[in-house]
Batch of 2 targets.
Target 1
Amino acid sequence: MISVEEFGKDADQWFAEHTPRDVDFMMPLTFMEVGTDQQFEFLRDWQRQVYEAGFLGAAWPSEYGGGGLTDAHQAAATKAMRKYEAPIMMNTIGLSWAGPLILDIGSEAHKQKYIKGILSAEDIWCQGFSEPENGSDLGNAQLRAVRDGDDYILNGSKIWTTHGNYGKYMILLARTNPDAPNKYAGLSFILTPMDVPGVETRKIKKLTGEHGFTQTFFEDARIPADGLMGQEGQGWKIAMQTLEYERGARGGQAGGYSITEPDPLEILNLARDTGQLNDPVVQDDLLDYIIDAQAVNLNQQRAKIGPLMRDNPAGLPLMDKLVKTEFAREINQYALTLQGTRGAYYVDEPNAFDKGLWHRSYLNAFSATIGGGTSQIQRNIIAEHVLGLPKSY
Amino acid sequence: MSFDPQTLGRLGITEEQVELMDVAEAFCRDKSDIAKVRAQLDDARGFSQDDWTAIAELGWLGIAIPEDFGGVGLSLAEVVPVVEQMGRRMMALPFLSTTLVAQALLKDGTETQKTAYLPKIAEGSVATLALSEINGSYDLNDIETQAQRTTNGFKVSGQKILVQNLDAAELVLLSAKFEGQTALFIFDAALIPDSARRREKLIDETKRSYEVSLDGLILPESALLDSSQSAATLSHIDLCGNLLGSAELVGATQTCLDYTLDYLRTRKQFGKLIGSYQALKHPIVDAYIGYEKARSLLYAAAHSFEQQGKGEVATRMAKVAAGRALSFAADRSIQFHGGFGFTYDCDAQLYRRRAIFHDSQFGDTRWQKKQLARLLFN
């Protein structure tokens, strides 16, 4: 097996040579921002190139299309991606949710069928958890799956389906038993093909004016029952397991990243470019952001230092999402206030600062403070699981 | 712009820090329950001599004193977990001032002074700082007290405030203007007569302090520290004070949160535990997050404390975060205890008072941010 060091060197060289520069469209910073066919095709092709070069799925088993190496190899490749600020890996639901799950608990047939297409981006995956009437209350999902011989018949709707219009498969949380003893026990987790009669997607226009999400409608859609993961009734548990992959609390992801986090301290450049870096009032604000950014950064370092984690071992991991996403929202919001009259502009306006990126980032920041459990739900989780407070409902 | 994220410091921990954390956690828990803290509020001296003797025997007073001078030979990074645990139990000991005097002597003392005083401090002599004056300035150079050389020694005139635990102190470190510069003097506390001392009333009733009239005080020639170093030494005292103050604040925040959470988990209104109401639950989570952030910044400051530049930035950031964390947690603690929170019996007031007191010590949030602006933007 090639050494990690040598593999890292190869990756470094490859990304140095192949990372695309200066595209003539706005590069999505997160997989949720892929809104045009041009962005989609570009990123799909980029993921395929990275996979074919061996730098994605390096630790996944080679018999299913992975590289057959170790997590350390993949980490070295991902490090090189970051170093050269390579574009994101866009097939996120496959790479970070469905793929690890299939490798963990899927059948041999599942692995043969799905893994390679996830890595090459040949098969785009999407996620069907939230419903129009059940957002934060995910466990109350009502989309109905009725067993009929070797099939399930689906009726209902899912919303906030990232890449829903490009998706070949969906990881679906469906209600197989409406009479279960509690709402969670009636749910099942099914790998669902999207290209069957009765499945229709409709694009959702985001607050930014762009696309990127769909609502998906199921009307007597007949899908093979062999997509069931685990047993009927285990859907909630499995869905929570996929969330652990997503949050990085559980290993097994293909690698790379689906979100590029711009350095929050870029705001200092904005303050300098707008001639306000020496304004004491602005400095006072900036210092709050610098201190907070440093605290967020140090929290991550501290999470790996056992003796400093003894009192509340789950505290820092569980607050990570809340703290980071709220910080991103706040700092992007603040950036708009530094732009004076030019704060009036939006994306593509030549007079806008940084092509209007700050405005777009601010509005898009809500996708992270709302999606994956709102900040308010995160506070409930921390209160109940770290601080031992009683449930609110 | 000279701003460089690399000046922001990193996090790490030493084995000695962990060992001291363990010992201090058990010791402070056993020796300083809240009933004892409250019992000492009205006590003139305000702390337990037995506990002081015990920590001297544990070697805590010499943690950051070199072995040559009777200490353990570690650094202030190892003092941080000890002070954190003292703060956690609201333990009233003159530990900070004594440690800071030792640090000042190490930085700026003559060999004679180090040899005479550092072993005494390590063995348990209480030492205190006479730096602050009635002008309320955080700037340690902004003082009026004068020292003049006479044939008998230094003749001092002026007044100091917030001289902590002077009644228990054997040693005093004094700042005064001498030949136009700020100079530091170390001397026997007995040189200050009782008539020159007035006990002050502090917001934090676990602490003790005195106003001291210095007019007529004569100090021996041997009291003067190496005056060429005094500006750097004052800055060192300031940073040491902020580092250890942050540790005390972080420890107190932990207990304040525990105290409040306990109430939210047991108090019922409208037939439900009040901790189930999100109007209380969400702000207490925010207070908890403030605590964890402050603790990360504190241990980063401890880790990088001795690095030029980085140490100062990290320390001032820690003080900002720690001061805010306890102020917010304690402010909400009073509010969330409802009617009981308005009473003296509710411990929330102890924590709120503690946070206000620390703002007075070596600079509040605004002062720290002014220094950070100077360090990062200019």
Note: Chain B touches chain A through 46 residues (CB under 8 Å).
Target 2
Amino acid sequence: MDSRLLREEKSVRTLLKDVERSLSRIGREIKLMEVCGTHTMTAFRSGLGNFLRKIGLRLISGPGCPVCITPNGIISAAVEFVTETPNVIVTTFGDMLKVPTNRGSLMKVVPDKGSTVKTIYSPEEVIDLAVKNPDKQIVFLAVGFETTIPTIGWVVEEALKKEYDNVSLLTCLRVVPPPLRAILSSGDVAIDGFIYPGHVSVILGTQPYEFIPKEFGIPGAITGFEPVDLLLGVISVLKQIESREPIVDIAYPRMVKREGNPLARQLIDRVFEVEDGEWRGFGIIPGSGLGLRGKKVDAVEKFSLNTSSSWENKNCRCGDVVKGAIEPPECPLFRKVCSPEKPMGPCMVSVEGSCLIHYKYGDVEWIA
Amino acid sequence: MCLAIPLKLIEVNDDMGTFESGGIKRKVNLSLVENPKPGDFVVVHAGFAITIMDQEEGEKTLELIKDWPEQEELD
């Protein structure tokens, strides 16, 4: 397929007219939460976020950035471990390296003798590190949502199958639906609908979101990341608002099936078990975490890691940003002392962080 | 982090696939998808294919956009 059409100005303009008409029929401002940070990126980089706001549709960023919602205790544990233990390799995804802790970020701290911090692109590389460094303990600081969790599960099964005893994981694995329930139940943020995450939903399918239309009467659509995909999702939700028939729609059928990816979910179930999970900004959300079933690969148990640090940079409002309670410019640190060069909190670090996206693209206008 | 891109498989060997990007051949882990075949577009996230693109649905979406009913201008 020729996916250029999904970015073409003409297509976008046609769909925007539909959005405008729908909004004028509804006759009030509509607030949609885009759960995934990559949607925030699509909206702001294209200028669509600002344009939609002008015509009466506000996109609010939700808790869809794994780096942003990982509590500091987890990252502090990794920092403490690599600075106080010789001959270890702490490995993680790029964005995690720059998150500040009270002792500095993983990128800046000085590891103990023979120890290092290594960035990986794919969890597969953890196995390569284990093979190449038999004399070192590899600790994988593994964070992510349903999209990434199966790839992390693969590492666990591989390490157990091949009996690598130098691999363990420090995890912060979180599932997306429970915080959506928390947001709706708290009533802190008035939301008219959800734009559900495209690639989390590749794994989940529609079933885990069904409680949202059923129990809360809130519409929503799963969609992809091209400007046209985003607008097809928005149009679906607006139609549901107009017809008062909320469902979980799929506006991304080329990638997402109603049943999701059962193979990936089976792997998740084999390796992890559901537990309560802590989220930055939210605190503990029941049933929102996945913990390792096999304690042999659990770095917290293996090295008695302390994950209880609750340190945050003073005045950093990342916790409110991830809940959609405030927008980045409302944080007193935003642009003044907090920038991508010197981030005060994870929302300014991650490519999916609302603060970084607002910092870079907040002023981009869609030329209609 | 949940960024993922569709890439065309050119080779499949059990759980390991090869795709070409910018003239460079690269590997992708296929253990999370069922029956991948050369020619399939797979969505790659963190080195793993997480789904195979349904090309028929993709074409349908493109048709939908092409044939989107023209609306009259707003007053």
Note: The two ends of chain B are 42 Å apart (CA to CA).
